[in-house]
Amino acid sequence: MGTASFLESARALLHIQNQLVRECLAELLAVLVLILITLSGSAQMVTSSESKGNILTAYLAGALAVMVSIYIAGGVSGAHLNPAFSLAMCLLEQFPWWKLPIFVAVQTLGAFISAGAVYAVYYDAIHHYSNGTLAASGPRETASIFATYPADYLSLSNGFLDQVMATALLIVGILAILDTRNKGVPKGLEPVAVALLVFSIEVSMGSNCSCPMNPARDFGPRLFTYVAGWGTEVFRWVKGRG
């Protein structure tokens, strides 16, 4: 009786009634999981010199992370996970504009925290691989674990077009999957369909910019690398690898 009473009291104390707070916490947790898995897939690939992973496994990790994250937050916040998707919902009048900056801030914060967690988990591996130097360019760079960078040949205009096309394709695909008037995805399998969509975009449009498609996913970890010691070079457009 005492234990049950304590658990009930704790549950009542921890229960959050404010809907906005619940949505923000759901977005935060979902983005934490999304970026933790996504960046860990990249970290395993880079620090093992592709002996324990490659670009395909990294893309697969990111796509499956999307699926898990939507299952986590879908019923509470809608699992936006992405400022671009939140903006699209505002433009379609399916999400209030006043919530947009709040969601963007929460999504970016979640990505920043996740980058720190990945750095902690792979701390020894990163420093062993890079010989103790946190570099954003060169043969032993590790900044690409956390953020996406353009290929050396890519121009600014081509990079802009690449990201507009990939992100637009992502948004259109998600809207089609969620449209109840369309040929519906079996209920409960929407996250799986979105994950397959993400994976298809990654494996077909990833060579130019590594296909970020998510401003929070890129900026949050990029900001972390700047704070953690990679320096201002992480904000450069062109990143040489040789």
UniProtKB/TrEMBL annotation:
Example of a GO MF term: glycerol channel activity
Record keywords, A-Z: Cell membrane, Glycoprotein, Membrane, Repeat, Transmembrane, Transmembrane helix, Transport
Pfam families: MIP
UniProt-listed InterPro entries: Aquaporin-like, Aquaporin_3, MIP, MIP/Aquaporin, MIP_CS
Gene3D superfamilies: Glycerol uptake facilitator protein (1.20.1080.10)
Coiled-coil zones: none
Topology with respect to the bilayer: Multi-pass membrane protein
GO CC, any one term: basolateral plasma membrane
Reactions this protein catalyses: glycerol(in) = glycerol(out); urea(in) = urea(out); H2O(in) = H2O(out)
Function description: Aquaglyceroporins form homotetrameric transmembrane channels, with each monomer independently mediating glycerol and water transport across the plasma membrane along their osmotic gradient. Could also be permeable to urea. Also participates in cell permeability to H2O2 and H2O2-mediated signaling. In skin, transports glycerol to the epidermis and stratum corneum, where it maintains hydration, elasticity, and supports lipid biosynthesis for barrier repair. In kidney, contributes to the reabsorption of water, helping the body maintain proper fluid balance.
Family: Belongs to the MIP/aquaporin (TC 1.A.8) family.
Binding partners and assembly: Homotetramer; each monomer provides an independent glycerol/water pore. Could also exist in other oligomeric states.
Name this polypeptide is given: Aquaporin-3
Organism: Eolophus roseicapilla
Source taxonomy: Eukaryota, Metazoa, Chordata, Craniata, Vertebrata
